[in-house]
Each structure stands twice: as structure tokens, then as C-alpha cells.
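Notebook entry, cofactor series.
This is the third protein in the set we're modelling with a bound small molecule. For this one the ligand is zinc ion. I'm keeping the input format identical across the series so the outputs can be compared line by line later. Sequence and SMILES below, as received.
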Amino acid sequence: MSQNNGYPFGFLDEYAKKEVRRSVLKAIALPGYQVPYSSREMPMGRGFGTGGLQLTLALIGPGEVLKVIDQGSDDSVNAVNLRSFVELTCPGIATTAKTEEASLIQSRHRIPEKALNDRQLLVLQVPYPDPLSVVEPSEDRRKAMHGEADYARLLVKLYEDIVKFKEITISHRYPTRINGHYIIDPSPIPRFDVPKLHQSAALALLGAGREKKIYAVPPYTDAVPIAFDDIPFRIEDFNDDQGRRRTCQRCGCQTSYLDEFIDSTSGEKLYQCSDIDWCNDQLTATQHLEEVDI
Ligand SMILES: [Zn+2]
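Returned structure with ligand:
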């Protein structure tokens, strides 16, 4: 066992890591099933990504390259702290901000814009793992409903949305059916990111530390957001009043998920890619094209 600053490699003891790995194997074997695990105390509050962190620490090894993002940014406080903790307790790993260089990506609230490949692992931090908790308070009953794929009450909830607002108003944590059976809470990623889980080349693991659950969307597996035949699922469109797709004010990208800012001097609304690495890449590509033109 490697030692660093008095911590065992990966902070968790070997037994805890083995338990997480066994839970991961079960989660892959039963796509979308919420596997209970003991979820250890971490030196940070539950709700700050401890579920994702325990997955990362149990799975990362020397020579691997880690990227940590929060809302698409590598530099937000949560991402910086989680990355520093992994660097401190896992000597021999490297970190990166480039999506394509990472072998393990831990994320909160976004899936990178760039398509992931089959050598990459995506770890999502999850606050509330069970999509049925909005319609059924008893976990025992929810387990039976999941087992029987009885999601009628969830569909009724969506239908009530349509009756009240004429559309499904869920913006994050959109209920998604995995491999034709279990419906998962895909963590608070926007609707925009949900289709990226469908038939993804990369394995996605979801960890809820406070709720003590691990679940998975294995590679090349169906992940279908629930909807109705006449009211299909749709992603955010980012169109302006004239129906034109808004573009990133920094790189000009017309396809990415955009964050909205208010310009402090003009008071004008500005839009920018939420995935900073993607935005930087688009900017470099545009500048390169301009140089070629010259
Ligand atoms: Zn951009």
C-alpha cells in the first residue's frame, strides 16, 4: 500500500474500496439498479460530492488521468477541492482539464460536450438517487415499484405538468429508463445532457454518498428519457425571440449548452458555453482558421 501524507492510497481503506468495486460490478450487471453500499465518512460534508469521490478513489490507479468539473468548469471551488483531495491521497495520478486526455472524469451537473470514448469513465455526483421519491415516501414500496417497473405514478406526475404548464417542466434530474427497465435519476444534469448517456461508449457510474447508493449506465446501453407518444422529450433549445439559436459570445459555438450571464455594465444578457474546455477548443479552432485565412 502506497503511503502519502499518512493516508493510504485513495484515502479509503482497502476493505471500503473493495466494497465500492463490488457494488460497481453489481450496478453494471443490473443497469440502472440502485445498489446500496455503506458510504464511508469523508473529510467533507455529505452533499459535496462524497458519493462521486468514493467511486473515484476506489477506481483510480497510478498512471490514470483525472478531470474534475463542476457545472462544466474545472476551476469552481467544488471541483478544485475534490481534485486537490484526490491528488493529495493518490500519488502517481495526473490531472487534466482536457476532456480527451482524461481516463476518469468526475462531474457535477454536466456531461462534457465532447463525446466520450470506451477508454473513459464518467463518474457523476448524485444528491437524490431515486426518481420515485417525489411520488412515494416509503423506500420499501419504491423498491417493489422499481422491481416491477411500475412507474405509472411517475408518468402521472409528468402528465400533471402537461395539464398545468402544457409541457414537461423538469429541467434537471430528468427520469430516464435504462436498458428498458429501471428508471434512474441521472443526477442534476440538464435535459440537454441526458441523450449523451444513450448508447454512450463510456461507462457512467453514479454515486450518492448521503443516500448510500451506486448505479450505472453501462457502455452501449439504452438510456431513454420518459415521455409520451404525443409529448416527446425535448432538450433546451436556446433560441431567441426570433427563433434563432443563440451562440456563445466567446467562441461562437451554436451547438453547446449555454450559461446565461448579465453584463454588469450594460445589463445585457450574454451567453457562453458552460463547458469551458469545449469553449477553449472552439476558440482555438476559430483562431487557427483565421490564421490560415490570412
Ligand atoms: Zn464557447
